[in-house]
Here is the input.
Amino acid sequence: MRKILSILLSVLALVSCETLSSIIHDDTLVARVGKNKLYVSEVAQYIPDYVSSEDSLNLAMRYINSWASEILYMETAQEQLSKEEMNVANDLEQYRRTLLKYRYEQRYVNDRLDTLVTQPQIDRYYKEHQDNFKLERPILRYRYLAIPKNCDRKEYLVKLLASSAAEDIAELDSLSVGVALKYADRSEEWSDILVLAKDSDVQYEKLLSNLSGSYIIISDPSSLEEKITYVCEIKYSGVAPEEYCKAEIVSMIQNERKHRLLSSLEQELLQDALEHKKFIIY
Here is the structure.
């Protein structure tokens, strides 16, 4: 509070002494829009104690401007809009109903939704919805290594990248800690090629154009590093493997269950109201 007060007072010091003295009370006034007043204590609630003085001032001015803008919008709207346009009672009631409906649906679903999705259910869904899992981009399993161009163990590291032996992969993991600028082993899972593009910091089209055999080597003359990818497996098009789609399938199955629950809720409410004469159709 003292820091914010000090900062704001330093800003207020730029105005005349008469103006400054007229706005000092038990709590310091920092802004006014018509009859609306904003005090330091109100601004201070929105500024963390740990930020710098410069950041405090920026946050304070942002809040002051936002506060003033909201009031000015409201006053202008009240001046310019007709009585009919300012009557928001129906809109508020509709919003209240929508919000209450949404909150009850959430509770209803949370209390009843079966989130467990078994492997047979995943297998069946995958087989029955193949068109939903066609690839938009290549996917691959790979190991990625970025090393200095002058690395004297380059050939050995490249050899380890291509190995399937557990001891070689363990050694690669160990060596990469001290040698590699960046290392990623994504050989056990399918990844969108955009993931490798992010690892490599290049466009994925460039990765594909540099694919030779099982290696992608990116060596920019202006850079001191070399980026080497060993591609264990790549799939360019067609239907994605089931394991790649598993998380998406689980989400789809759960969403379908949710929609069925909400549909049954609506029917139950209508049927119950009809049976108890609470809902009557003439």
